[in-house]
Write a structure and sequence with these properties.
Blueprint (H helix, E strand, L loop, with lengths): L5 E7 L5 H8 L8 E8 L4 H10 L9 E3 L2 H7 L4 E4 L6 H10 L3 E4 L7 H14 L2 E4 L7 H10 L6 E9 L22 H18 L6 E10 L8 E10 L4 E8 L10 H5 L6 E7 L2 E6 L7 E6 L13 E5 L9 H11 L4 E3 L1 H18 L5 H4 L2
Parallel strand pairs: 1-2, 1-4, 2-3, 4-5, 5-6, 6-15, 7-10
Antiparallel strand pairs: 7-11, 8-9, 9-10, 11-12, 12-13, 13-14
Helix pairs in contact: 4-5, 5-10, 7-10
Bound molecules: NADPH dihydro-nicotinamide-adenine-dinucleotide phosphate and the ligand O=C1OC[C@@H](O)[C@H](O)[C@H]1O.
Length: about 375
C-alpha cells in the first residue's frame, strides 16, 4: 500500500472546538492523508498546552511547537495548513495575517462577521495563491454529498424548505460569561446556529443550480433574562424568485426546536423530529436532528407509483453513516487542494451567500455588533 502524504497542521488557539476537531482528525485511519499537529499558538501557558495535549490524547505531543504569539507562529512556523478556531470576531484579522504569510487556512464557521470581510479574505487568498476554506463541515459529510449529488437532481423542483437548528445551550449550566452570550465574542444564535440552518437552505435551494435568493423577512427575539441582549429565536424567510421557492429558516439557543433534551443526548438522538424538510415536486426529504451531522435522509416520493399495497405512502430511509464525529472530512478536502496545488477558496460562493443573508437578516431584525468587529 502506498504511504500516505503527511499534512502538517497548526492550530491557532486551543479552543473548545479544537478539542473536538483535532482528536477527530489526527491519526484517523480512513483519512486520505496522514494528518499531524505540529504547532499551536495559545494565550495560555506552555503547561496548559501540555495538559491540553494530554487531556485530548494528541499524538506526538512532545514534537509540537507551542507559540505564545499567533503572529509569530504564522510568520515562522513550518506547517501546511493553519486551523483558525478562535471566536468569530477574531477570524478576519487572523485570516488576513495568515494570508499575508502565504498560509493555507481552514477557518471555523462563521468564516467572518460579515460578507464584506470574507470577500476581502477571498480576494487576498486568490492573490497570494493560498487555499482558504470555511469549516462548514456539514457540507462535506456523506449524507450531504449524497443529497447534493444523487438525490436533489432527482426530486424535481424544490419549492419549499423548512430549516431549523435549535438547541437550548443557554440552560442553567451556561455562565453569563460564555461566548454564546457575549456580543464581543460574536454571541447570538444567528451567527452561531443560523449559519448551519441557512447552509441547509442554500443546499436545498441552490444545490443543483444557483438561483437569485433574497431575504424576504427576518425577525428576532433576544435571549430572555440574561445579560448581553444576544439574539435567540430568529426567523428568516428566503425567496428564490426565479425558481418560485421559499425557505423558512429558524434558530434558538433557548427552546429545543426539533431536538430532545439533554444537549448531548439530543445530538445523538435517533428519533427526533426533522430539522430540515425539503419539499420538491417529486418528493420530500427530511433530515433528522442534529442537522449539523446528518446520517439519514428520509425520502418520501409522491404519486401512485410510490404507494404501498395498503395505499400508505412509502418512506425510503437512506443511511449514510459518519465516521468518527465527522468534522475531519473537510480536512481531507483542503489537504487535497493544498497537495494537488489547486489554490483558491473552497466553497467561496456558498460561504459568501450565507454570510450575505446573515448581513441582510441582521439589518432587518436589528441585530448589531460593535462596529469594530465588523470593520474591513
Ligand atoms: N464546527 C463546529 O462544530 C463548531 C464551531 N465552532 C466555532 O469555533 C469558534 C470558536 O468557538 P469555541 O471553540 O466554542 O470557542 P471558545 O470560547 O472555546 O474558545 C476561544 C479560544 O480562542 C482563544 N482566544 C484567543 N484570543 C481570544 C480572545 N481575545 N477572546 C477569546 N478567545 C480568544 C483562546 O484560546 P487559547 O486559550 O488557546 O488562547 C480561547 O480559549 C467559533 O467561531 C465557533 O462558531 C464552535 C463550536 C462548534
Ligand atoms: O458549530 C456549532 O455546532 C455545535 C454547537 O454546539 C455550537 O453551538 C456551534 O458553535
Amino acid at each position: 500500500m502506498e504511504a500516505k502524504t503527511t499534512c502538517r497542521w497548526a492550530a491557532l488557539s486551543l479552543s473548545n472546538i479544537a478539542s473536538v476537531f483535532l482528536p477527530d482528525l489526527l491519526g484517523r485511519e480512513d483519512a486520505q492523508y496522514e494528518h499531524k499537529l505540529v504547532a499551536v499558538s495559545t494565550t495560555g501557558s506552555n503547561e496548559r498546552a501540555q495538559k491540553w495535549f494530554e487531556d485530548n490524547k494528541i499524538p506526538n505531543s512532545q514534537d509540537i511547537i507551542v507559540y505564545n504569539s499567533w503572529q509569530t507562529m504564522l510568520e515562522q512556523g513550518d506547517f501546511d495548513i493553519v486551523y483558525v478556531s478562535t471566536p468569530h470576531p477574531l477570524h478576519y484579522e487572523e485570516v488576513m495575517k495568515a494570508l499575508e504569510c502565504k498560509r493555507n487556512i481552514l477557518v471555523e464557521k462563521p468564516a467572518t462577521m460579515n460578507a464584506a470581510q470574507y470577500r476581502q479574505c477571498t480576494e487576498l487568498a486568490n492573490q497570494q495563491g493560498c487555499v482558504l476554506m470555511e469549516a462548514m463541515w456539514t457540507r462535506y459529510l456523506p449524507a450531504t454529498r449524497y443529497l447534493r449529488e444523487e438525490l436533489l437532481p432527482k426530486i424535481g423542483k424544490v419549492r419549499r424548505v423548512y430549516s431549523d437548528f435549535s438547541f437550548p445551550i443557554v440552560g442553567p449550566d451556561l455562565q453569563d460569561t460564555s461566548r454564546f452570550l457575549d456580543k464581543a465574542a460574536g454571541g447570538g444564535a444567528l451567527l452561531d446556529q443560523g449559519v448551519y440552518a441557512l447552509t441547509w437552505a442554500d443546499i436545498a435551494l441552490n444545490g443543483v443550480e444557483v438561483g437569485e435568493t433574497k431575504v424576504a423577512h427576518s425577525s428576532s427575539w433576544s435571549v430572555p433574562e440574561r445579560p448581553g441582549d444576544v439574539d435567540d429565536i430568529n426567523t428568516v424567510v428566503l425567496t428564490t424568485k426565479d425558481k418560485g421557492a421559499t425557505a423558512i429558516v429558524t434558530t434558538s439557543m433557548t427552546i429545543p426546536g426539533s431536538s430532545k433534551p439533554p444537549f448531548y443526548v439530543r445530538l445523538g438522538a435517533q428519533k427526533a423530529a426533522p430539522s430540515v424538510r425539503i419539499e420538491a415536486t417529486e418528493a420530500s426529504v427530511a433530515i433528522p436532528f442534529p442537522p449539523i451531522r446528518p446520517e439519514e435522509l428520509h425520502v418520501q416520493w409522491y404519486g401512485y407509483a410510490h404507494l404501498n399495497e395498503d395505499g400508505t405512502e412509502k418512506n425510503e430511509i437512506v443511511k449514510k453513516p459518519v465516521s468518527g464525529w465527522g468534522i475531519w472530512y473537510q480536512a481531507d478536502i483542503i489537504a487535497a487542494a493544498v497537495f494537488n496545488k489547486q489554490p483558491g477558496v473552497i466553497g467561496a460562493q456558498e460561504s459568501l451567500r450565507v454570510l450575505g443573508w446573515m448581513d441582510e437578516a441582521r439589518t432587518l431584525a436589528g441585530i448589531t455588533y460593535d462596529e469594530k468587529l465588523e470593520q474591513v
